[in-house]
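Reading a protein record of the kind used here takes only a little practice. An example makes this concrete, so a full record is given next.
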Amino acid sequence: MPESAFTDARKEERRLRVGIMRSDEELERAANDFWNIMKAALRNPKSEKDVDRFDARITGMLVNTEEKRILGLLEKALKEGAVEDVRKAEGDAFSAYASVGMPEERLNALLELRRDVEKGADSLSVLDANAERMGEQQFAKIIELSEKSEVRREEIVAVLGKAAKPELADALYALLQKEEAASVAARNALGLGRDDYERIFGIAAKNEIMAVLRLYQRVLGDASFAKARDALMRGDKSGAMAEVSRMGIAAQYLFFAMLAPAFMRNGMWNRAAARIAAKALGKIAEIAGKLGLDAGAVQADYLLSAKKFTSRFGDAGALNFALFSSAYALRLGKK
């Protein structure tokens, strides 16, 4: 083949290859799109739509060599803080699961992360339902166990003693074994990051799952919370407080330790405001169930948002609060 013909052939090959390969800008957009898909699956592990979309995206990347470049771009962007809306727990989990290995191994690790976050959410539900079977000292010992490099299930059973229901021991074991994924699940469950726990409750912790365990420890040791809850539940068991009583112990603590004081400071601790909150909590749980979202997590987010809103726009008649609650439910229903 003449030199010119050979050169022309190489130029044509290069032209075709460039046409097939995606530009860096396209890959950056694809990396951002991938993060949004993964983020939705991690934050809503019970949503079939979000989970299926993420799993399908991973499958597509596994069979497309060019798509695998997205992982490197995403990792670099996360380190540089160039990705929007990244919770620290999510960034830490991504690094722990997908920072080493071949692209295929890293992609499969992200699938495992998504499954572990879902398992973490289930484990937290079991823990919340059984937390009051435990004592403050038992939580302290569980937290102490978490500092070990390797925790055995038998050690957890020994700490639980009479409270050692198999499902509770399994839940705690799963949470301590997969701390990064469990921290993502914990961040979802109460809507609080580790900085929030320190700012609001004075609880310092290395990650969200440890902060949650310390919060349960505090809840069980807080006599004033127990008295306030019992008194209010007795006084209004058939009314506004009935919906609050259906929430988990941690979410109840958010209600009585955070929202109730905000109500009191603004002259809103009355039956009208309590009814609005209870009605909103029930409606939010109903909408969350239809969307495949964790009802407790959404209720906790509502309580935190309501506390912030009430601190700024509280009114004795609770009109602003009623408008806020309606708007929150409406926004949730449009997701």
About this structure: Residues 11-22 have pLDDT under 50 and may be disordered. Residues 103-130 form the longest helix (28 residues). Residues 218 and 321 are 29 Å apart (CA to CA).
